[in-house]
Amino acid sequence: MQAAVLEAIEAIRPAIQSDGGDLQLLEVNEETGVVTVELFGACGSCPASTMTLKAGIERILKDRVPGVTAVDAKGLMGDDDLF
Prior knowledge:
Elements: H1 2-18, E1 21-29, E2 34-41, H2 42-45, H3 49-64, E3 70-74
Parallel strand pairs: 2-3
Antiparallel strand pairs: 1-2
Helix pairs in contact: 1-3
């Protein structure tokens, strides 16, 4: 599952980087299907980063990787807690 998540992230990374941001995979919990990423650069402080995470990254990962149930992020808008 982790390899498939990494492959999907690499496919969407150019779109995120074109807006001045990036993301890094932190964890894939294969039991729960929760993927944890860190958004940084412009994405770390952008007011739309939550929408990018849920409507973009999470939707794409759920579509491309069987078993992914949710995507959480560390570092959204300067917050170091996981959502």
